[in-house]
TrEMBL record:
Organism superkingdom: Bacteria
Taxonomic placement: Bacteria, Pseudomonadati, Planctomycetota, Candidatus Brocadiia, Candidatus Brocadiales
Protein name: Helicase/UvrB N-terminal domain-containing protein
InterPro entries: Helicase/UvrB_N, Helicase_Restrict-Modif_Enz, P-loop_NTPase
Organism of provenance: Candidatus Brocadia fulgida
Any one Pfam family match given in the protein's UniProt record, by short name: ResIII
GO cellular component: cytosol
Residue ranges constituting the Helicase/UvrB N-terminal domain according to the UniProt record: 63-343
GO MF annotations in UniProt: ATP binding; DNA binding; hydrolase activity
Amino acid sequence: MSISLNTGTREIPLKFAREITGIVHRVWDSGEFLAKATPITQDLLRFWFSDAFTETRHVNFHDGQRQAILNTIYAHEILRPESVFDLYSMISNEILAEMDLSYLRKDKFSHPKYCMKMATGTGKTWVMNALLIWQYLNARHEEKPSGCYSTNFLLVAPGLIVYERLLDAYLGKQREDGIRDFEASDFKQYEKLFIPPAYRDEVYGFIQTCVVRKEEIGRKVTGSGLIAITNWHLLAGEEEEVDSNPSPLEDPSVAVKEIFPVTPGTSAGHDLNTLDNKYLSGGEIEYLAKLESIVVFNDEAHHIHETKRAGIVSEVEWQKSLNKISENKGKKFIQIDFSATPYDVAGSGQRRTKHYFPHIVVDFDLRNAIHGGLVKTITLDRRKEIATMELDFRAMRDGNKVIGLSEGQKLMLRAGLTKLKILEKEFTDLTQDKNGITDKHPKMLVICEDTAVSPYVTGFLTQAEGLGEEDVVQIDSDKKGSIPAKEWDTIKQRLFNVDKHEKPKVIVSVLMLREGFDVNNICVIVPLRSTQAPILLEQILGRGLRLMWREPEFQDAKEENRTRLLKRKEAPSNYLDILSIVEHPAFIEFYDDLIKEGLVGEITELPRDREGILGDIIKVGLKQNYKDYDLYWPVIIQEREEFLKDVMPSLDNLKIMQWYNLDQLKLMVCEKGETFYSEEMTVKTRFGDYKVTAELFTAKSYNEFLSKLVKIITSTVVKITQRRTKDYPAMQINQASLVQLIDDFVRHNLFNQEFNPLEDNNWRVLLLSQTGITEHIIKELSKVLYEMQNTVDVQDAIVIKQYFSQVEQLKMRENFSLDMVKTIYERLPYPSNKGALEKNFMLACDHDGAVKAFLKISEMYHDFAHLNYIRSDGILSSYYPDFIIKTPKHIYLVETKAQKDIKDENVLLKKQSALDWLKKINELKPDDRDDGNWSYALVGENTFYSMQSKGASVGEILEYSKLTKQRVEGTLF
């Protein structure tokens, strides 16, 4: 997309993207965004971004992904531009005046077109997935087609690797038998992030029946739409290449291919299947061009550009094909591009200038990604010997023939391999389990000058440096950058699973692994290739940016590293998620720019010991005498024969809706406007799009509305650890009785007057999301069911004792941990940020003679030790107390809180849930509750320090802070 103008775009598009982001922040915070969005979009955005859902998921969109989704939806759905020029004029006439208007008027910008500038490794594919769902569901449920949405999609990848990644994302990874497992697809694995429950069947049906591989486009019959996945070579009419993309004018061999589709003299040259395939080549473009509407997602879109030869500017074949597909579609052709490097470079040396694509709507750059901890922190390994020795860093040649590696190249490889071996040992020692198994296998990536050099690199590593043949995988291609299909099938299985296996340790490639090589464990890159093209350099860095250490227990240490490297300009305290680039002289200018921008740290010495690699991260096991201090968490297993004491509660305990007039609500479902309650809606068509706040679903009748509510209330997603969630069965009784209870509540109590939901379809008022009616119903019923569960008779219950010692190892920071006597582990951790209260409380427990045993409960490891409570928004969630403490007669669950948090609404609700749970525990037989009376203590900061200073024991502090029903229901502090 090079711009042949004197001025070019320069960084104006980035300024434009920042302006859009500012506007979106304002309209989102004010509520204007959601008010103007379609009902489907409202459902999706609430599901993706509202706290009620994000806090119960272990995976969510990060800020960059969220901004990309919001900016695109705002630009397309709220503003509804018909071209890039329109979008500029709607956002800022001042910025538009800075652009060359004749350039924006080009045909390729004459339709809705948006570009996501997102750093490599920050999850562009997830943004693509979300936008596809948004487009598809809106197109399916839109009553009057607006042309803004489509059920047809074309996903364009830059090469085989990204193409395979997209197939994995949509169809699932390929098994050994060649069948793709949909359960392993992104949509299925992360369904709790991407798809509201009510739409899952619809979306799954679409994906599973409408995905078309590149060889099937125009030939496979699909259902309600199309998801065509291809690499750009299909659109360019060529076989896959890596280094170049010649047009027929530039490369006569391309023209020969177009004229003679079958090569004479080959064994399969006159096979009928070959003839058919060659004849049909190009028919894919015609097929796509005939579709009424389509959304094109270009992954790694920097490959779309213009070429300039002899003063003539020409579009590459890829863009020409897109121009052909977009003909006669107008605003029904929507193009969404993704790239970490959406720019072209004009000039050279000091006059080199980046010209960014004009349609960039979000800029989430490498700086944001690194400082936010979303990708690895980059360090440049500048060796003292490299800095002082004048060595040749190019391969040795006899004329044009490569005859060996230079001494400079060997030195770089040795430096990288030395770093790799140190990382490998320490990472394995830290993470391997008792069976010696670990998933932390650091890898080294070597980028070669060309395919003639890579065999010499492999030979040097295996023959001179002692690596085995299985330790090194070499990714070679022919002169056109292609790999034979059978060889590629073998390589890709080995390549894309490198994170899971110890071998291979080193990956040697030229450019095949430039994009889409999305593994996490690349820790060292040795760039032997001497090119200085900025895009290529950034792409090389991108191969190693994805995080390797994602576990919550390592986040604090990684944050400290970023502070040391990027703010204080100090050496890192550890090498967790550090990407080491072995210096190449040709890259010095590029690296210097990154260092000035605060993106790269410098390393001049190899770490000499374990602490230099892992910092203060340690692995802590059980003490030899851990049984003396072991505690357990009682889990009550209900017998099938047990019944709830009260089958159904009284309606008298349910609160009415006091803040809405019923007659006004009835009018709201008939008013016109941009919200979801338009006059044209009917029960059979439009009502299906409405949202019920706590569970996004399509309700087509009052009976269905009731059944959906039952599902919401009786099965709620609960976060049980940082890593996983579960569907918690909130109620296991006759659900017909619950339906009756809800119906009675709605008819007689909800509005403090009689209400007939079936008369004139009055039930529709329950779906008005802005009123919070459904939220209120769910919240009230959830509280009732929670109370019912706590009326269970547990005298004869079966109890499982979950001993804390079943978790044999913890990982923690040594500098923020204590060597304690009265606990099962060798050390106990406390927070590095504002952890003084917990630290001092543990010291007090350890020194107090009346404390027999205690433990700091870890949400990440002791996932069984939690209570369930109803949050202030009515959602069932999980709560982990800070400590469990045993004294001669008592077991205390303890929460330590800063004084400012004592009266937080959710803290108060946790108190109530703890007391309800402890009531059941104390009704158990003594042997099932460790022969102690269980209590809950909320120890405030002021209380602890004040009483300790006066000589109070831990037992006295806990008794003073112990909560009772009366104290919770009254005024506590």
